[in-house]
Amino acid sequence: MSRSMIRIKGTLLLSDHKNSIARAARIIRRGGLVAFPTETVYGLGASATDTEAVKKIFTAKGRPPDNPLIVHLSDQKQLRSVAREIPDTAYLLIEKYWPGPLSLVLQRSENISEVVSAGLPTVAVRMPDHRVALNLIRLSRVPIAAPSANWSGRPSPTDFRHVLEDLSGRIDAVIKSNVCAIGVESTVLDLTGSEPVILRPGGLSRERLEETLGCHIRLAGSGANIEQPSSPGMRYRHYSPLAPLILVTGAINRRRRLLNSLACHYNRKGFVVGMLNFTKQPNFSPEIEAGLLAAKLFQTLRQLDARKVDLILAEETETAGLGLAVMNRLRKAAARTIKV
Ligand code: TXA
Ligand code: MG
What we know:
Radius of gyration: 20 Å
Order of helices and strands: EEHEEHEHEHEEHEHEEEHEEHEHEHE
Bound molecules: threonylcarbamoyladenylate, magnesium ion
Shape: globular
Number of domains: 2
CATH superfamily of the largest domain: DHBP synthase
Number of strands: 17
CATH architecture of the largest domain: Alpha-Beta Complex
C-alpha cells in the first residue's frame, strides 16, 4: 500500500500532492466528505450543490442543522452561481482581500442547496488563501461547502491530527498538509443589510475592513443589540477544550493577582492547572502579539487537553487586530468568566 493510501478507522489519509488532491476532488464530486487545510483552520468539505452530501456534514460533525455553512470558491467567476444581487461593496472587498480570511454574507442563489444556509435566504462565501484548498475546489469543479472540521463545540482544527482526533471514521478523507497559519476562522461580514456588519470577528481585522470601507463597522451582538445572536453559529458554546476554562478579565494587575491565586488554590487541591499564558513579548505591537496568539490558540487548547489538565486559566487580551477574534473565541470557550 502506498503512503497516500493509509486509512485511519476507515478515513483515508491523503498527501497534499497533486494526484492525491485529484483523488479528494473525485470523492467530493461523488458526494463524499473531505477535510482540507485552509489558511485559517481545516474545513470539512462537500459539494455545495449536492443536498445529500451537505446533510452528511451536519451528521459527521454533530452540528445543529440551524447553523449555516460557508461556501468556498477557487475563482471569482463562481460567485454569480452562488450569490445574487451582489453589491459594489462586495466587489471592492473581494478585490482587496480574496483569496483570504473574509467570508461575505450575500443573497443566496438557487444553485446552492438551502441546507447549506440552514434555510436562510443568504449565503456566506469566501475564497481560501491556501494552495491545497484552491486546487481541491478547482479540481472538484463545484463550490465546496465547509464548516471547520471539528466535532461540533470543540476547538477548530489547525492540523490534520486534530481532524482525526474528532472525526476519524466519520468522514471519507483528510488531506495532510502544512499547518493553518492564521489559526482562527475567517471574519464573517454581512453585506445584506443597510450597512455592513461583522457577524463573527476572525482572521481579517475590523481595523483593516474599516480602513478599506472608510466607515465604522458594527460588530453584531455588541452595543444596542447585545442580546441578539450575531450569526446563527454564535448562539452555541464553542471552541471548548475538555477541561473547564476560566477566563479572567479586568485591570491587568488585579487579573494577574487573581490568576496567580486561582492557580495556587487549585494546585493545592491537587488539580493539574493549564495556563493560557499571554505574557507580552518586548517590542511587539498589540497587533503582532494578537496575530501570534491567534495562530496558537486552538492548538494550545488541544495540547492542554492532551496533557489531561483538570482546569485551564486564561487571561483577557487586548482586542486590537486579531485580538478581537481571540477574545471572542475565549469568551465562547469559557465555562466561566470572572471580571475583577
Ligand atoms: O475560516 C473559516 O471560516 C472556516 C474555514 C474552513 O473556511 N470555516 C468556518 O466555518 O469557520 P464554521 O461553519 O465553523 O463557521 C461558519 C460561521 C458560523 O458562525 C455561521 O453561523 C456563519 O459562519 N454563517 C454561515 N452562513 C451564514 C449566513 N448565511 N448568515 C449568517 N451567518 C452565517
Ligand atoms: Mg466552526
